[in-house]
């Protein structure tokens, strides 16, 4: 009797479902960054807005990377439903605190995915996920660096203005 | 080669039976007097559809529209109209079928006998 599952894909169903869940998480992260960009832009922090627009694009790219991987493996990737995300932040600093927390959550999720791959002996997917492991280190550094600016510059006087001007230097973004 | 040689029974309940056809690589479902054939990917989609139906809603919502559920089979233009009991029985059959498919796959894996 043929192994019909193997004819379809070598990806285990639980890995497939977990990767689809990760797609949703990346899409939500992209949406959250867009909301942060919007908040920054309307509050006059244009450099920070640019930074968050870029982050939003990156998260979408991450989502598509997983999307294409699933398709390459012969299984369906699902376009995720993304619910409402917060658009209100009490302070300029809290926007960056939320961003860092979001990155930490994504890192934990990627780690759980890697653990799952090891448990079911899916080394191809684990290898694919190593790119995300490395990427998350960088994402967390950027988010943490942004918060450090609040500590080293301070928010008094023209502090917030200076922080905003320096945020773009984290990823060397230009503002028109 | 006889057609019967390529048909393998996967799972059987009092309400239905599933087979695997090695000639067409299809899973054949016989349930509620209807016969449907699925490619593996479509079978998985159909099983997930059946699993996603909210049974609690069917039990507790007294509105007429919750008395039955229509499940469409992917790519076959066939539909199953299912009552609550039908749905439970269908899920049982599909879960049993998936178990046999998993078991067969595991056997192939440990015996290194991937065949076409």
TrEMBL record, chain A:
Fe cation binds at residues 26, 59, 62, 103, 136. Keywords: Cytoplasm, Iron, Iron storage, Metal-binding, Oxidoreductase. Belongs to the ferritin family. Prokaryotic subfamily. One of its GO terms (cellular component) is cytoplasm. Residues 9-154 form the Ferritin-like diiron domain. This is Ferritin. One of its GO terms (molecular function) is ferric iron binding. SUPFAM superfamilies: Ferritin-like. Its EC number is 1.16.3.2. It comes from the Bacteria. PROSITE patterns: FERRITIN_LIKE (PS50905). It catalyses: 4 Fe(2+) + O2 + 6 H2O = 4 iron(III) oxide-hydroxide + 12 H(+). GO terms for biological process: intracellular iron ion homeostasis; iron ion transport. Pfam families: Ferritin. Its main location: cytoplasm.
Automatic annotation (TrEMBL), chain B:
It comes from the Bacteria. This is Uncharacterized protein. The lineage of its organism: Bacteria, Pseudomonadati, Bacteroidota, Cytophagia, Cytophagales.
């Amino acid at each position: 009797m043929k192994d019909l599952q193997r004819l379809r894909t070598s990806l285990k169903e639980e890995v497939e479902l977990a990767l689809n869940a990760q797609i949703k998480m990346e899409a939500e992260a992209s949406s959250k960054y867009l909301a942060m960009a919007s908040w920054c832009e309307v509050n006059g922090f244009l450099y920070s807005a640019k930074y968050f627009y870029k982050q939003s694009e990156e998260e979408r790219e991450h989502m598509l990377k997983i999307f294409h991987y699933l398709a390459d493996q012969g299984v369906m990737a699902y376009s995720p439903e993304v619910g409402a995300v917060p658009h209100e932040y009490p302070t300029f600093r809290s926007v960056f605190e939320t961003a860092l927390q979001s990155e930490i959550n994504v890192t934990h999720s990627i780690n759980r995915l890697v653990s799952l791959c090891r448990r079911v002996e899916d080394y191809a997917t684990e290898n694919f996920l190593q790119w995300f492991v490395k990427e998350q280190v960088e994402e967390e550094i950027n988010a943490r660096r942004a918060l450090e600016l609040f500590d080293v510059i301070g928010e008094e006087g023209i502090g917030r203005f200076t922080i905003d001007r320096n945020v773009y230097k984290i990823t060397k973004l230009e503002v028109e | 080669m006889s057609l019967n040689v390529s048909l393998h029974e996967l799972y059987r309940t009092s309400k239905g039976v599933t087979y695997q056809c090695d000639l067409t690589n299809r899973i054949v479902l016989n349930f509620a007097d209807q016969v449907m054939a699925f490619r593996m990917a479509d079978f998985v989609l159909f099983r997930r559809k059946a699993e996603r139906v909210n049974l609690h809603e069917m039990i507790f919502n007294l509105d007429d529209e919750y008395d039955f559920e229509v499940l469409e089979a992917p790519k076959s233009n066939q539909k199953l109209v299912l009552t609550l009991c039908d749905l439970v029985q269908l899920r049982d059959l599909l879960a049993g079928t998936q178990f046999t498919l998993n078991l067969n796959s595991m056997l192939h894996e440990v015996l290194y006998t991937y065949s076409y």
